Amino acid sequence: MTAKTDARLSKAYANMKPRARVLAALNAISEGDMECFRDLGRAAPKKSYIEADATESNAIEACFHISEVLDVVFYEAMMRKYRAGYIAAERTIDHIITGDKDKTPLEIMAEAEEGEFSNLAASLESAAQNDARAVCAAAIEFAQEIGLDLKAAFCRSAAASDPEFARVAGMGQSDPERVKEFKAGFTSVWGQYGNHVLTRSAA
Fold it and tell me: How far is CA 33 from its chain centroid?
């Protein structure tokens, strides 16, 4: 890859919306493309996109926020009261929980269901400092187990916290042109990333 191409990709990563970057990182993990994953991490802003959680995370290259993944995947699962999701979570994250040794992952999930979701997110984010890839893999597997559409979930999450995102995405109002514009932009970003993965795979 030439320096010029690499510079263009770095700029594209830096301009990505936070949740688009998270999705790209999840895909990079699932593809085993750790070089691209690290590139995304280095390009990510050091402050959390979620204002309510403004603390910096040491997970994923000390600047990429695993909480973005956990908040959406686990919250969606709990809102569905999907028992199979809890069981999948227990199996996939058991080996990476480094927080409260006196509680099983399932017990932590049960607490989260009772309104203590932040404890679960904190435990997993702490674990991510030691093994970010394992946490992402667990989140991906969990999402697959419960049939969660990650792209749709991140769009809903972004729309809930970002009125401009909701407006452009056409959520909450009917504006075909804006929806078309949003979809074209999202596809463009995803297309650039997808081509990057193919390029690296062929190298």
Answer: 16
CA distances from 159 to 6, 17, 39, 154 (A): 31, 12, 26, 8
In the chain, what is the straight-line distance between the N-terminal and C-terminal CA atoms, in Å? 9
Show the tokens assigned to 19: 């949740």
Q: What is the pLDDT of residues 167-188, one digit of tens each?
A: 544 444 444 554 455 445 444 4
Determine what percent of the chain falls in helix, strand and coil, rounding each to the nearest 5: 75, 0, 25
Distance CA 31, CA 21 (A): 15
Number of Cα atoms under 13 Å in the Cβ half of residue 87: 5
Q: Which residues contact 24 (CB under 8 A, 6 or more apart)?
A: 13, 16, 36, 40, 189, 190, 193
pTM of the model: 0.30
Model pLDDT for residues 147-166, shown as the tens digit of each residue: 655 555 555 555 554 555 45
DSSP labels, 74-141: HHHHHHHT-HHHHHHHHHHHTTT--S-TTS-HHHHHHHIIIIIHHHHHHHHHHHHHH-HHHHHHHHHH
Structure token pair of residue 139: 């989140």
